Amino acid sequence: MDIDVRSGFCKENSTFYSKRKPLTLPPNPSLDATTYISSQPHRGTTAFIDAATGQRISFSDLWKAVDRVSDCLYNEIRLRRGDVILLLSPNSISVPIICLAVVSLGAVVTTANPLNTTGEISKQIGDSNPKLAFTTVQLANKLPGSISVVLTDELEEPTRGVNVVGILSEMMKKEPSGERVRDRVGQDDTAMMLYSSGTTGPSKGVIISHGNVIAHVAKFVAQWKGDEIFLCTVPMFHTFGLLSYAVAAVALGSTVVILRRFGLNDMMEAIEEYRATSLALAPPVVVAMINDSDRIKAKYDLSSLRTVRCGGAPLSKEVTEGFLEKYPTVAILQGYALTESNGAGATMDTVEESRRYGSAGLLSSGLEARIVDRDTSRAKGVNQTGELWLKGPSISKGYFKNEEATNETINVEGWLKTGDLCYIDEDGFLFVVDRLKELIKYKGYQVPPAELEALLITHPDIFDAAVIPFPDKEAGQYPMAYVARKPESNLSEKQVIDFISKQVAPYKKIRKVVFINSIPKNASGKTLRKDLIKLATSKL
Description:
Blueprint: E1 9-10, E2 15-17, H1 33-38, E3 46-50, E4 56-58, H2 59-75, E5 84-88, H3 94-104, E6 108-112, H4 118-128, E7 132-135, E8 148-151, E9 163-167, H5 168-171, E10 190-195, E11 205-209, H6 210-223, E12 229-232, H7 239-252, E13 255-258, H8 264-274, E14 278-281, H9 283-291, H10 293-299, E15 307-310, H11 317-326, E16 331-337, E17 345-347, H12 351-354, E18 361-363, E19 368-372, E20 386-391, E21 398-399, H13 403-409, E22 416-424, E23 429-435, E24 440-442, E25 445-447, H14 449-456, E26 462-472, E27 476-485, H15 493-501, E28 512-515, H16 529-537
Parallel strand pairs: 3-13, 5-6, 5-7, 6-10, 7-8, 8-9, 12-13, 12-14, 14-15, 15-16, 27-28
Antiparallel strand pairs: 1-2, 2-19, 3-4, 10-11, 11-21, 16-17, 17-18, 18-23, 19-20, 20-22, 22-23, 24-25, 26-27
Helix pairs in contact: 2-3, 3-7, 6-7, 9-11
């Protein structure tokens, strides 16, 4: 194949290839993810620290706990290959122990957001049919009484209507029986089932194989040095938090400091106290750090911090430059991935790469991409816009019990249709223009909301913004903005409309503005447009 060295594009098959170093993956098909992770060499000592309590667990104690918990699950609860367990928990040291133990047995981990309602959790339970749930005393009442529960904290008083069959801390103290005969687990077996964020539609269970997890771990290890101290600011029930911080960092031998819940000041205190070197943030937090930089730098010692990774939405040139100006010793690196791609997509790995403004970075190791015209299904070339398709060892096999959605999203050749409108430039950098499902159709023109949002947050009086389609008889739809003003601002609707009008083509103009206290987002920082659309159209 004749692959262009600069762009990674091959004209013969209209495919872009990653310019990163190739992934080193184990050839053995009969390998579970936990065994692969435990076999990685490193010199690390402390695996996890709870930022709230200072509780620590070493790597040796972590693996001892994993072995004991998996033994209890196998012999006492009779958990077997293919059985599903539900993990309903805030961020804690318990999460990696439970995940590694369950996955080692060939059983499947599914996670739920602790903020979900009882109804939402019941729906996920109905779909995934877990044999067991791990949760806290506080959250146990969100579960139906029919499900067996292992509590991750001490039982202070009987929990009414909850079928408690074990307590994690007691499991971690029991010596292994030595009677376990492990089921044979292969890389094609399902390790996890994570429910996609559902920003544009109903949430679906994404099937993640042991091979997918191994590919993510291999990419993570290739990307990072072992001397990092990661601060886990993102939820561990989400793909990024679970795969990167609860799982992959263990293989790297790095310390992960766990924030139970996000708070800007809590994060700053933890960076200072534990000398954190790296963290991942959603774009609104990056903006908050810029706006509040004088106070933050006066109050906290952030000298250990080297890297901030950012995803969920593109950062504008103004935000990137603003962050580098306020925090000149910290690299801010963007990335792009989906639940269905298990951390693979595109990344920036250097400050030099981060100056390719508007880009999500270069294709991840081991990944292939196509840019496809939705109308003709024809694959396009360099600097041409179309739907991004991805293929590689990290890509999910599909959705649980949803053949229709699987066939719509992943074709027979294994290409994942991301639903994102993108292009790849002459140097191999990926640019995400917008979600295809979210494009606003104004009189036949397509308007990308992300482009307007990026302009809005450059206004000195705007803290955050979201743009949605608003129905209109004449135009079909037009762009409407929800705007969160900075404190003390008296910014008016007309000022916002005029600000955008001067910078865009007439069909892209914002024609309606509503001011709001904060923009609703999911755990990974993505704007919940469907919630805003519902709010905007509820009075029609």
